[in-house]
Design goal:
The chain has about 800 residues and is of the alpha+beta class. Helices cover about 35% and strands about 20% of the residues. It has 26 helices and 29 strands. Strands 8, 9, 10, 11, 12, 13 and 14 form a 7-stranded mixed sheet that branches. A 4-stranded parallel sheet has the order 2-1-22-23, covered by helices on one side. Helix 23 (about 700-715) runs antiparallel to helix 24 (about 720-725). The chain is globular. Bound molecules: ligand ANZ and zinc ion. Zinc ion (ZN) binds near residues 472 and 477. It is found in: Cytoplasm. It catalyses: tRNA(Leu) + L-leucine + ATP = L-leucyl-tRNA(Leu) + AMP + diphosphate. This is Leucine--tRNA ligase.
């Protein structure tokens, strides 16, 4: 198709813009539909094939919805703060703001070249003060409600990025961004209390139309675990500590207890002669990541503290050990070990020669990890499972040495970063007043442009005196600004709200407007966001709802993940492997429509796969063929001077293909099954081509079939279809017309083939009109030439008709 594509692209993009075809009018007729794609991160200079795979097909879906009569809102913007721009600045000396803004400009142009119907007048760019002012407002609101707080915490520290990482940014003990080994460090940090919403975040998952796998991942990440806390006291001391257990029924089987190396109890329980070995062990443990420490296969290690603890139910003394398979950050950081019924405890006890006893019946050998009748458990013998737990907890409660307890794996969200390129945290520290939030009227706390951002472990902002020194909003004395910035996930946790009312300079968003357009009807983005962005956004929505700003519970009603487009070699695209696909080159050669149509036809949307040049070429050829067929059809329309008006066999055949395509393109596109939808279009194309070869054509009917053809094609190849629509002489725009609906009658074939049996044996076949009654079918069968000859000399006893399939004549 030469450069036809690019020419047509530009022509229609200009016209769409000039006529405001994609502008969103909240008062326009039609049910609202909010289609949202995860906004992009302008860190690389350009959009890659993955962006296209996210945005192109989703835009096709949105266009399809628009043609179905929905009032579609499809905004776009940029998640513009974050580490990559800052790291790039450190490397090249180019200021993050400059590189980010330049990248955004390029990406905007590329997105426009895609021809998606984005509502650009609703764009948000999170690093602009008119956006982050309101990110700071969100922070202040959470602070007001006690949902943002400051505490000392061991944090994940990346020694190379010189920053704190969220748990989610640590992959197998390494920094997600630079792959350095992550260390632990104590720092005062800001947290959002997402754990307050842990239960609702689990429960409401059931109501969401999300991929099951994503829901399961979130559920696991939140990790609700029901168990008990049991208090052990240290022998010859006042110290008591709690353990968290999900198997309180095994309490009689405890033969030792374990403290995490970071537990606050370690130092106070360690006996003097054990101090050295414990200290050494603590240092060793610091270097291990939580993932390694939890590994089931890794050899268990630990040290004895020299102290003993008292089992609250048996009063037996058990040794207190320190071992890194116990995590400081889960439960209480202390564990009761039951080697008879827990794999890890069993391995540890075996290695260190600690007693192993059976308290649960079952299994041939120990460890036996299932439930069963209690043995060796005194008064609790013979109780099973929940009954046993209830009895033991009841006893513990009487002694005030235990209680039921629900634990979560989910931790509060660490939101402070010792980095420059983020939204400043809007609080100041005053010697007299302590932590003082910046009043809303003084927002935004602007990020200064001139900054020394070479990392040295300190926040770059803490080195900028102009920024740092301020006056206390409460008492007017000197105060110091918070110099940490917010995690970029805070910016992206509420952007879908700001889109609706992006130019509002008075408030973050108008609740009425937002309540009208949200929740988002369809959210599309990568599955890698399951436990971070998607969880944070749900939390922020719920928190703002509880403050009265929103009247809905969940931000994203329906979610679809696109798959990954791999390099032609089947590997993940990367510059170092040299297997990247640059969309721009292909757009230049084939045009935007062929590019996006290949992405839709060549892959199952949620699976993705390896890029293929042959694949895109074959789609190019398909579009060329469509172009020729449509041209031929137009010629036919202008030259056709026969007056045929009836629908005969050929017309009925095309009509069948037409309605079959309408039905299936509609159903499949709805479900993001673009590949099969386009396959149905190809079949319809073949039928159209076949019809054009007929001698005698019905022009009026052909016109109708063409109108539907172009409408069906429009979401997939928007520029091309708009152009063909014009050439067909129809009024602009094809996207303002309504999506065709299928006629079930056209899908009923006129005739069916029926088998005729004589006493169970097939003797003949015949075609009968589908609307024949049973009697008519009987009649036709008996009068069938072949059957007459078979029946000669026999008498018919019975005739059985199975409609649409067969007739069985019982004869003797
Ligand atoms: C005694 C016991 C006996 C346990 C038994 C299990 C089986 P979930 O389901 O993930 O909540 N545990 C508790 N805190 C821990 C920590 N900080 N680090 C490592 N392990 C910890 O797991 C709860 C179980 O994990 C708890 O129940 C505890 O071991 C262990 F036959 O207590 B159990
Ligand atoms: Zn003050």
């Amino acid at each position: 198709m030469g450069n036809y594509g690019t020419y047509v692209d530009k022509k229609w993009q200009d016209k769409w813009e000039a006529t405001g075809l994609h502008n969103f009018d909240e008062n326009a007729p039609g049910k609202k539909l909010y289609a949202l794609e995860m906004f992009s991160y302008p860190s690389g200079a350009k959009l890659h094939a993955g962006h296209w795979f996210n945005y192109g097909p989703t835009d096709s879906w949105a266009r399809f919805k628009k043609m179905q009569g929905y009032n579609v809102f499809q905004p776009m913007g940029f998640d513009a703060f974050g580490l990559p721009a800052e790291n790039y600045a450190i490397k090249t000396g180019i200021h993050p703001k400059d590189s980010t803004m330049k990248n955004i400009e390029t990406m905007e142009d590329q997105l426009k070249a895609m021809g998606a119907m984005f509502n650009w007048d609703h764009e948000v760019i999170t690093c602009n003060p008119d956006y982050y002012k309101w990110t700071q407002w969100v922070f202040l609101k959470l602070f007001e409600k006690g949902l943002a707080y400051r505490k000392n915490a061991p944090v994940n520290w990346c020694p190379s990025c010189n920053t704190v990482l969220a748990n989610e940014q640590v992959l197998e003990g390494h920094c997600e961004r630079c792959d350095s080994e992550v260390q632990k460090k104590e720092l005062t940090q800001w947290f959002f209390k997402i754990t307050d919403y842990a239960d609702e975040l689990i429960e409401k998952l059931d109501e969401l139309d999300w991929p099951e796998k994503t829901k399961a991942m979130q559920k696991h990440w939140i990790g609700k675990s029901k168990g008990a806390e049991v208090t052990f006291s240290v022998e010859n001391s006042d110290i008591k500590f709690d353990v968290f257990t999900t198997r309180v029924d095994t309490l009689n089987g405890v033969t030792y207890v374990v403290l995490a190396p970071e537990s606050v109890y370690v130092d106070s329980v360690t006996q003097p002669e054990y101090k050295n070995s414990v200290e050494e062990y603590k240092l060793q443990a610091q270097k291990q990541s939580d993932i390694e420490r939890q590994s089931l296969t890794r050899e268990k290690t630990g040290v004895f503290t020299g102290s003993y603890a008292i089992n609250p139910i048996t009063s037996e003394r058990v040794p207190i050990w320190v071992a890194d398979y116990v995590l400081a950050t889960y439960g209480t950081g202390c564990v009761m070990a039951v080697p008879g019924h827990d794999d890890r405890d069993f391995a540890f006890a075996t290695k260190y020669n600690l007693p192993i006893i059976r308290v649960i019946e079952g299994g041939d050998s120990l460890p036996y990890c299932d439930y069963g009748k209690l043995v060796n458990s005194n008064e609790f013998n013979d109780l099973i499972g929940d009954k046993a737990k209830e009895a033991i907890v009841k006893k513990l409660q009487e002694k005030n040495l235990g209680r039921w307890k629900v634990n979560y794996r989910l931790r509060d969200w660490l939101v402070s970063r010792q980095r420059y390129w983020g939204a400043p945290i809007p609080v100041v520290y005053c010697d007299k007043c302590g932590i003082v939030p910046v009043p809303e009227s003084q927002l935004p706390v602007e990020l200064p442009y001139d900054i020394e951002f070479t990392p040295d472990g300190k926040s770059p902002l803490s080195k900028n005196a102009d920024f740092l020194n301020t006056t206390c909003p409460k008492c007017g004395n000197h105060a110091t600004r918070e110099s940490d910035t917010l995690d970029t996930f805070v910016c992206s946790s509420w952007y879908y709200l700001r889109y609706v009312d992006n130019n509002n300079s008075e408030i973050a968003f108008d609740s009425d407007k937002v309540n009208k357009l949200l929740p988002v009807d369809k959210y599309v983005g990568g599955p890698e966001h399951a436990c971070m962005h998607l969880l944070y956004a749900r939390f922020i929505t719920k928190a703002l709802r509880d403050m009265g700003y929103l009247n809905f519970d969940e931000p994203f009603k329906s979610l679809t993940h696109q798959g990954l487009i791999l390099g032609p070699d089947g590997l993940k695209m990367s510059k170092s492997k040299g297997n990247t696909i640059s969309p721009d080159d292909y757009i230049k050669e084939f045009g935007a429509d062929v590019f996006r149509m290949y992405l839709m036809f060549g892959f199952a949307y949620s699976e993705g796969g390896a890029w293929s040049d042959d694949g895109i070429k074959s789609i190019g050829r398909f579009v060329d063929r469509v172009e020729r067929i449509l041209e031929e059809a137009r010629d036919e329309l202008s030259n056709n001077n026969n007056s045929k008006t009836t629908l005969e066999k050929a017309e009925k055949e095309l009509n069948y293909a037409r309605h079959y395509a309408i039905q299936h393109v509609t159903e499949d596109t709805e479900k993001f099954q673009f590949n099969t939808a386009i396959a149905r279009m190809m079949e319809y194309t073949n039928a159209l081509s076949k019809y054009l070869n007929e001698e005698n054509k019905n022009a009026a009917f052909l016109k109708e079939a063409l109108v539907d053809y172009i409408k069906l094609l429009a979401p997939f190849a928007p520029h091309f279809a708009e152009d063909q629509w014009e050439q067909l002489g129809e009024t602009y725009s094809v996207f303002s017309t309504s999506w065709p609906t299928f006629d079930p009658n056209a899908l009923i074939k006129d005739e069916v083939e029926i088998a005729i049996q004589i006493s169970g044996k097939i003797r003949a076949r015949m075609n009968v009109p589908t609307n024949y009654s049973e009697d008519e079918i009987k009649e036709a069968a008996i009068n069938n030439e072949t059957i007459i000859s078979f029946l000669e000399g026999k008498s018919i006893l019975k005739v059985i008709v199975v409609k649409g399939r067969l007739v069985n004549i019982v004869a003797k």
